[in-house]
Amino acid sequence: MNSDYVEREKIYTGPLSIVYKAKDARNGKIVALKVVDVDFLVKPHNIKREIEFLKLQGQVGGEKFGILQYINSYKFGDDDILVTEYYDIDLNSLLVSHKKRSVKYDWSNPEQNKYVFKNQFPTDLATFIFYKLSLTLKYLHDECQIIHRDIKPSNVFFKQNREGEVYEPVLGDFGILYDKKCPPPDEPPNEKYTDVSTGCYKAPELCFGTTDYDTAIDIWSLGVLVSRMYSNDGFECVKNDSGSDLGLIHSIFSQFGTPNLESIDEKKDKRYWPEMKGNQQFEMFNFNINERRSPSELIPRCPNNEISVLWDDLMVYQSSERPSARDIVRRIESIQ
User: Fold this and answer.
1) Which of 74, 115, 156, 169 has its CA 20 to 30 A from that of 66?
2) Domain spanning 119-335 has what CATH number?
3) Over 126-164, what HEC string results?
4) CATH number belonging to the domain at 5-86, selected among 1.10.10.60, 3.40.640.10, 3.60.10.10, 3.30.200.20
5) What is the mean pLDDT of the chain?
6) Which residues 6+ apart lie within 8 Å of 45 measured at CB?
7) What band does 1 get if pLDDT is binned at 50, 70 and 90?
């Protein structure tokens, strides 16, 4: 590995990459090294595409819009190494630090004792992060014509001061980005990969094999992320404990209602999903009928009713009806 980066400390190990904290021996700056063996990458993961994008953002000032700051990149044997700004904490760790656990005892049957979680994440910070990430997505979607495809708390980073207070969020991990201006040869606009997004952050249309999706999948993921910040227990509004698309769909339908292909009032019915007409994967199932739960149930700690209404508009099945990042920014600014 490049001798310019010393005192390396492994801080993350994943199936496709390893991340180190290191010091730049030339100037003493603390940096992050993302190491990827390209022989083990699974499409659509592409470290070269990520490096190209972040390098360009470093040239045009993308860090002003909350984009991970590029420093350097190089090869070492079979590995591609991306050097970026180092951030002290990610949103996932920040949320965990504000989640308190207690035990609810069953004195008659101790084996039935249950853990109870209480979310104490500051709601003003949650609204701030919602707004700033929307600004970042507005820049990505409108100016860069990029679909991130992996919005989740562990990809949102912060600098911290000595008191533990965080600065503005920064979005990272562009390993599966989709460039609408220059679609990759193996992913034409109408034939994109659906194995994108992580766990419960995956938009419902992806679970049914929709390949002509657009930036609305990032908006859904953002909504799930926001639900975790405003929850009572520090968990997302939907679950994907089984790790399967079917399990995720079951959870989504139980929270947001079972979608339908016909509606009396199409504009007001958030369960109306005309995109699925003719989709064999959707039409072959006979789903249990569930009603849509209210924002007060799904994001109970949200302190502002207008923010709750905005969030509810994000979480609709018909992707074309989800507000754009530009719309979200405008609506939050009108509230503040």
Assistant:
1) 74
2) 1.10.510.10
3) HHHHHHHHHHHHHHHHHHHCEECCCCCHHHEEECECCCC
4) 3.30.200.20
5) 94
6) 16, 175, 176
7) low
